[in-house]
Amino acid sequence: MEEMQKTVELLSLWDKCVEGASGAPALAGPCLAGNRLNLDVYPDGCCHFLRLLKEQREEVVQVEFLRLSSNDCLIGTTLDSLPHLQHLKSLVLKGGHARDQFGSCQRGSLTSLPQDFGKLKCLTHLDLSFNRLSTLPSCILRLPSLHVLLVSHNSLVALPEDFGCLSKLTFFSAMKNQLTDLPQSIGELSMLQTLDLSDNVLQLLPEEIGNLHNCKELVLSGNCLSSIPDSLANLKSLRELHLHSNFLVTVPASLASLPNLSRLDLQNNCLRAVPAEIQALPFVDLHGNPLGETEPSLQAGESSARGLRKLSCRLRKHSFPVTSEGCKVVLPCDIHFYFPAGAVSDPLRIQFRVLEPDPQWVKLRHHDVLLSRVLELQPHGVKFQQEVQIWMPFVQPRMLHEHEVVVRTFSGQSWSDLRTRVKQKRGLTMAHCSVLHFSWFLVVGRLVQDECEVPAEGTLLFSRVDPDIKVIFPPGVTEEPRRVKMQVLHVPAEVIDEITANAGCRASPLLCLSQDSLVDFLNPVTIQLPLPPGITGLNLDQLRLRLLHGDLEGQTWDDITSQVVLKFTHIYVMFEVTHFSWYWLWYTTKSYIEGIAKKVYERLRLYQVNFIALQRKRDPEQVLLQCVPKHKVDPVLERLQNRYQGPEPSDMVEMFEGEQFFAAFERGISIDMDRPDCVDGRLSFIFYSHLKNMKEVYVTSPVDRKGQAVKGQVSFYRGAVPENIPEDASRRRKGADSLWLATLPIKLPQLKPRCDENPGPLCGFSFPPLNLGNAETGYLTQANLLSIARRVGSDWQTIGLNLGLTYQQIERIGHNNRDDLDKQILGMLFSWAQQNSEDPDCVSKLITAMKESGRQDIADEIETIIDLGRQKYSESIRRVGLEQESSTEDSAIAMM
């Protein structure tokens, strides 16, 4: 039924495309420009393509460069039309344009290709990255002109045996798949220059890989290789060999004889000894290896942390290897691991990433506070033979004594708490736990939880938070043992006074009881609570005492005073129950207390916060927005006052932990709508009381300011609230007016004069002459960068991020040159060039960034420039040598 409904939806969307082509209102979208169609940036790009194919068929079939998103729901229908594009040279069908609930790039829907794809005889570049291919489509092997093939981020487990028939292939990337071995025919790719097989599960390499005589870059990092074949020494053209994060125990000394090798990365392997020839290479990287260490010798049954190798993962590494020897690992975010010897029997690669918490899947319980971001560890579900220890740093909570710190893990269905200890490690306060499986982990502060197992003989449970609270289980209370849990929450008197307008109401601590059984107790259980503050047996008026019972979500409260028998002592009240929930003792003159209790309970879960909007003194168009808990406002402002200025904080508002809110710039001020955290023109935030709810953005005025200052504002609005907030709170937050929280003024100063007259290609730039690289690897000059910049286009932000520029740097460049795409591109390229002018590997990094950004065409152009430069350099050296030799001969003849 679901498949039928999906088919109907696709047909409906296709009808819209056809309708747009037949004279009815057409879809707004791109137009065909020259021989290129870049449709992957449009959410309905396939629909646009089908419309253009129907309206302008003669022009579309001449297209040579086409980009589509495989996340598009019409990609299947579109594939059948692509073989008609007989002139197609470059085809990009990538996924990754959508994100899942964890913030990860969502793979496209491609699992195969039509057989007719083999008819694209002109196709030289094919990118199928971020899809769901488990096998390489056979039609690809019939593409005679294919030079570049990218199938990274798929699910390939093997390559075809006749893969070597792609004789013209010069670039092949299959990173982040599940390849376990390679076909012998891979050695037939005689023209291959770049081979990237990183982050797979390769255990062996065929000897035939040594036949890739034109290979310049071989990337095998992040696999399960314990050895490499000696035939790699035959790769005389090889310049870079990446073998980091494997299980290598030895490397052949013959690698040192490779004449063009300029980089050998052997980090994070199991190398205890390395040939002297390899160690002598100036460009080899051996960090993270147990060099010089001996095998740890342990007696039977003995385990020790001594002798374990230590791995320090660098910022760009997202995985590390673990062997049966065990190891210690430190991630860049100060998360520590200890894998004891024998935790795994076979080599295993652990992948990790740190995610921003999203309330859609990070479900906090009542009165929880989030203290860390989410750590994901893969592979999920693999069981270790011994417990692995994890240390996670967290934000020190400003909580009352009834809270405790725990590590919480997600099974894919629900969250559960792990036994946690708080320890000091290297000056950091960390949450320590032990696990047998990897999944998702975070640190939270929860109400202190006391628990015990109740046997048939009965038992007694005390609260660590308030020893005056206890639960007595008499004999015969249960037939089968069951576990019960107790949590206690104190209620500040000022909160009750605020809600009740000082009506003299008092309340005891809130008591929450729960159990792992759905069956009521066989005999009544006795609960002891302290009398509300200021009330004793001497001044007690029993008619003013109310016992309330609440559900576990705190949505409803019922007065059960008349349903139980209350027994009093001088300072306690005792009563009996047969099932568990929330219990709350009130002392009041009001006859109806349930509504008041509900408001007080809601108030206990709210945080009082203020919003601040400050502008950087040196750059007023850079605005800092932050939601700050009330008690932190003064320290935050004091810390920022030297660099920022702005209005006073907003009035106090109340928010729930995990509540979404938005910031909207108004009255002539706007921001970049392409930001990943921008929703309908508004910045999206999630409020977590102990994490930084802060963002810095560049603002601009979309209207013609004519040199005048602009007085605008930023307003804050509520978004989605947590699912389990009280019903009254949800009802009050419906409607446009109730979503508004606060407004703060923002003022943009007068615009500085811009270079509008005779703008040259470097208007606004004053960089000194550049020569990137070196004589041996080739130079890139300022003129070369200008030539490259002309081809970058709208991909400049992606390229900048892959070059290592921060998102703030990219945003600053885009803002400062917001009206000129050429200047944005030049600003990005020259900013990177200035930062890396002393790096001898900067040219290779630029080429890699272009490839990672899907711009193989620019990468090829740079390599052509570099090769040409090297040739000229070699020719000049030879020419100088010949001139010297000729002058010597002339001198000899003269002497004769």
Automatic annotation (TrEMBL):
<dbReference type="GO" id="GO:0005737">
    <property type="term" value="C:cytoplasm"/>
</dbReference>
<feature type="site" description="Cleavage; by autolysis">
    <location>
        <begin position="438"/>
        <end position="439"/>
    </location>
</feature>
<keyword id="KW-0677">Repeat</keyword>
<dbReference type="InterPro" id="IPR050216">
    <property type="entry name" value="LRR_domain-containing"/>
</dbReference>
<dbReference type="Pfam" id="PF10461">
    <property type="entry name" value="Peptidase_S68"/>
</dbReference>
<dbReference type="Pfam" id="PF00531">
    <property type="entry name" value="Death"/>
</dbReference>
<feature type="domain" description="Death">
    <location>
        <begin position="781"/>
        <end position="866"/>
    </location>
</feature>
<dbReference type="GO" id="GO:0006915">
    <property type="term" value="P:apoptotic process"/>
</dbReference>
<dbReference type="GO" id="GO:0006974">
    <property type="term" value="P:DNA damage response"/>
</dbReference>
<feature type="site" description="Cleavage; by autolysis">
    <location>
        <begin position="580"/>
        <end position="581"/>
    </location>
</feature>
<dbReference type="InterPro" id="IPR003591">
    <property type="entry name" value="Leu-rich_rpt_typical-subtyp"/>
</dbReference>
<dbReference type="InterPro" id="IPR055414">
    <property type="entry name" value="LRR_R13L4/SHOC2-like"/>
</dbReference>
<dbReference type="GO" id="GO:0007165">
    <property type="term" value="P:signal transduction"/>
</dbReference>
<feature type="domain" description="ZU5">
    <location>
        <begin position="448"/>
        <end position="589"/>
    </location>
</feature>
<dbReference type="InterPro" id="IPR000488">
    <property type="entry name" value="Death_dom"/>
</dbReference>
<feature type="domain" description="ZU5">
    <location>
        <begin position="316"/>
        <end position="447"/>
    </location>
</feature>
<feature type="active site">
    <location>
        <position position="581"/>
    </location>
</feature>
<feature type="active site">
    <location>
        <position position="579"/>
    </location>
</feature>
<dbReference type="Pfam" id="PF23598">
    <property type="entry name" value="LRR_14"/>
</dbReference>
<keyword id="KW-0433">Leucine-rich repeat</keyword>
<dbReference type="InterPro" id="IPR032675">
    <property type="entry name" value="LRR_dom_sf"/>
</dbReference>
<dbReference type="Pfam" id="PF00560">
    <property type="entry name" value="LRR_1"/>
</dbReference>
<dbReference type="InterPro" id="IPR001611">
    <property type="entry name" value="Leu-rich_rpt"/>
</dbReference>
<protein>
    <submittedName>
        <fullName>P53-induced death domain-containing protein 1 isoform X3</fullName>
    </submittedName>
</protein>
<feature type="active site">
    <location>
        <position position="439"/>
    </location>
</feature>
<feature type="active site">
    <location>
        <position position="437"/>
    </location>
</feature>
<dbReference type="Pfam" id="PF00791">
    <property type="entry name" value="ZU5"/>
</dbReference>
<dbReference type="InterPro" id="IPR000906">
    <property type="entry name" value="ZU5_dom"/>
</dbReference>
<dbReference type="InterPro" id="IPR019502">
    <property type="entry name" value="Peptidase_S68_pidd"/>
</dbReference>
<dbReference type="InterPro" id="IPR011029">
    <property type="entry name" value="DEATH-like_dom_sf"/>
</dbReference>
